[in-house]
Amino acid sequence: MSYTTMSILIIGMAVATFVCKASFFLLGSRVVFPSLLKDALEFVPVTVLTAIIVPLVVAPEGTLDLSWRNPQLIATLAAIGIAATARNPLLTIVAALATFFAWRFVVLA
Amino acid sequence: MTTGNDSPGLNAFLLGARDTIPMIVGAMPFGLIYGTLAAQALPSFAHSQLMSATVFAGSAQFIALGLIAGHAGLVVIWLTTFVVNLRHMLYAATLLPSVAALPLRWRTVLGFLLTDETFAVMVARRQSVPDDPEIRWYFLGSGVALYVTWNMVTLLGLVFGSAFPQLQSLGLDYAIVATFVAIVVPQLGRMPHLAAAIAAGLLAYLWQDLPYKLGLLAATMAGVAVGLACARWRAHA
């Protein structure tokens, strides 16, 4: 692919991405969602963030691994427990990372 | 005399940047790997850096490298980029109440800077501090911190990529999972939200092999529908 074609390709990708990211923001207060859609949007954070992480946690190598030898799974179970009881995000993150690396490089070493 | 510490805007900017640090740690390996792969797949370092600077969307950038290597046409790559990034429309719609009243230049910049990571920290921020008057600065701080580091690690990957062969296996990307868990779990106390999350997670696993992140999009929408149905059912029960 020539230099010019590649530049056009990348700028086009930037435009396509910007349309997805910014359309609603650019319309601003002119966007009025019907109440059903407003109710629906309330569920977007929990669903999309869960949908991103579940495959990474239960199948880190691509196939389902629900065993104790899966450090992502062990650390995430610990994180869920801590998040549910302590409600301190930083503590959850640090404890999850500590569990993950300890499991990976100490328990499974 | 006014010092930086007296500026609520600057404080919110720094707070947004700080709360994004775990995500930055998690995203750094991907930026390095992107730079390493782009150095081979694209005709110049300038093009590789241009993509991180103007597209600024990790998954779309990786998929584009694959399509370019496979000699896909421009329109195919543009359409794929659009579909892969569709989830950002859901993010923007969700965050719209925080930005709708801002001047156009703010909405343009914040839209450009919107990513999975910044969406997640914004969700957590709005939960812990509803109606934060400085939320635009918080958003900007998170977005700028991620943008600057993403472009820096892209450059590092371009120049020194071959020196970091083991980076992917280190597991730093687990920091993103840990942060998402910390954000999601406190929101699962209500039954409809818990049901929505379980449905979305289960379906995301089952549909993970669908191309262009369509499985993620479909699982999210199905989870939202489950949440809505549970909320309605409870209201009428």
How many structurally independent domains of chain A? Answer: 2
* Number of helical regions of chain A: 5
Q: What would you report as the Rg of chain A, rounded to the nearest angstrom?
A: 21 Å
Mean pLDDT of chain A: 93
Q: Assign an overall shape of chain A.
A: flat
Folded structure, characterized:
The complex is a heterodimer of chains A (109) and B (237). Chain A has 109 residues and is mostly helical. Chain A folds into two domains: 1-32; 33-107, no CATH class. Helix content of chain A is 75%, strand content 0%. Chain A is flat, with a radius of gyration of 21 Å. Chain B is mostly helical and 237 residues long. Chain B has two domains: 7-171, no CATH class; 188-237. The longest helix of chain B is centred in the middle third of the chain and has 26 residues, at 135-160. The radius of gyration of chain B is 19 Å and the shape is globular. Chain B starts with 7 loop residues before the first helix and ends with a helix.
